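Objective 1.3, modelling of assemblies. Example input:
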Amino acid sequence: MTGITPIIELRDISKSYGNNTALSGINISVYPGEVHCLLGDNGAGKSTLIKMMSGVVPPSTGQILFDGKPVNLASPREAMAYGIATVHQDVGSIPLLGVARNFFLGVEPTKGWGPFKRIDFDKAGEIAIEHIRAMGISRVTDPDQLVGTMSGGERQALAIARALYLGAKVLILDEPTAALGVRESSVVIDAIRKARAQGVALVFITHNAPHAFAVGDRYTVLLQGRVAASFSRGEKTLDELTTWMAGGKKIAEDATV
Amino acid sequence: MSAAPKKTLRIVNLIWLGPAIAWLVIFAFFAIVGGENGFLTSSGTAGWLNIAAELGIIAIPVGLLMMSGEFDLSTGSMVGAASIIVAVGKSYYGISSEAAIALALVLAILVGTFNATLVERTKLPSFIVTLASNMVLMGTALGLSRLLAGTSTISMKDDGWAKDAFATKFGDFNISIGWWIFAAVLAAWVLRRTPFGNWVLATGGNLDGARRAGVPVGRVKLVLFIWTAVSSAFVGVMTTFEFNQGNATTGQGYVFQGAIAAVIGGVLITGGFGSVLGIVFGTMIYGVVSLGLFYTGWSTDWLSTFVGALLVIAVITNNVVRQKALTQGANRK
Ligand SMILES: Nc1ncnc2c1ncn2[C@@H]1O[C@H](COP(=O)(O)OP(=O)(O)OP(=O)(O)O)[C@@H](O)[C@H]1O
Ligand SMILES: [Mg+2]
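Predicted structure (tokens):
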């Protein structure tokens, strides 16, 4: 993948909350069409890292580059304008609204003029169903079906589909499978693969080694706010990955990466 | 590309059905018990429709606001304040109807903005914020009317266009019924068809989710608070021309009746769920019960008992309906 510009790159980033150093000396590159897994124990700094990528908090020092150019992501809105989208674990869908209404929430397509301007439900429904199907959800065919009746995995897929439709170039997923069962997780993993195939760069935070192993192209392991290891797909076995995630410290001591 | 999406009857689109059936049952009950005393006559029908119309104009935006997750208990004072403005303005300052009405509506916009801003800034429940503004506004209107006119009831005379627009009668039926229908059609259109309606339900259904999706939740609530205040002022203006007098306290009945009609009409008190047609039926239930009791010959003391029981049943039913909506079509294996 060398030669290709990272869509988003963090250079020597650090972040302190008062005296508490959450992150220091972080270098990470995320490439289009790749899934970048962010691994690490609780409190390692994963959430802090993606908050900086999505404009929620500014870094204390260091530089963020978008498509090779230094940027200042002052707010989530600005990050979104660059095409950096975040799907949270709780997704944020509206259970009592239908699929199409959720998919287009805040960006509803309209037809008609002046006071007769109204949501174009035919268009909204068609596009929404088509795009969630492209994420591998085929059970939902009615744009009016309430999102509250969809499974957790399907809701994640809906959120991913929406982000892609709205032009996301970087998609950050903070533990999307954490609350899901095996089958639901595989729905999400599948959606991640489909998004990657569309050339999107994905940042995938997870505590689940098999999930990371299944889709990851690149891995960064954080340990107490520092990059403890970074490697590519195929350089580590699932067992090694599991060990890394369980207690990266031990290996970090006797192996230099 | 995709199979034609199949259309099913969804519970969310049938929220009004429960209130409609309840209204039918209650109407039938009073028709049987009070029919002989004239409940079914034209004047009996006009009686409950007239009550429902004025309440309904307020209950509709109160219901929309509830769907967005907020309450407005300042409606009653807004009715009274608007009525005082019109009566004092016309009787004591000799201003035109247009000017008096414009003043009342401007005050309504200010009150709505004030409510919305205070709720947004303090993060306090709107229930308490608007209860406070209800008292402040009523006290002020009462105080000013006594100060300026020496009385809390100010008579006013007008035979211009405003009298026609707000006080015309067709037999026993007030023109307010027409305004009510207009308000309902407008609100139903906005709620079901426009992006703003989607935002209202989203704001009440999941505030954080709506905000993250880019819905301007603060602006949604601002518009709804203003809508409610303006509708209340409208009723205040209307009754002033109808009864040829203004009174600062006339509207206090609406404070809870508006919310009650909305809840009986199927609006979820926690927000995110409801229909305008449902609110219309909820209001009609209120109208039928409050007038129907007269025709039964029983003491109208029982009105509160009846309404309270309805309210409990409605709140429970609404939650059940919500649950049902969330399991319908989930054909999970
Ligand atoms: N707003 C804050 N103020 C002070 N300290 C913070 C703040 N946010 C995070 N931290 C600290 O930064 C460190 C990293 O936290 P972070 O939430 O990024 O970890 P994480 O890797 O996402 O953990 P988890 O796996 O539990 O989600 C922790 O020590 C945490 O206490
Ligand atoms: Mg975290």
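The pocket of magnesium ion (ligand 2) is lined by residues A 46-47 (CB under 6 Å).
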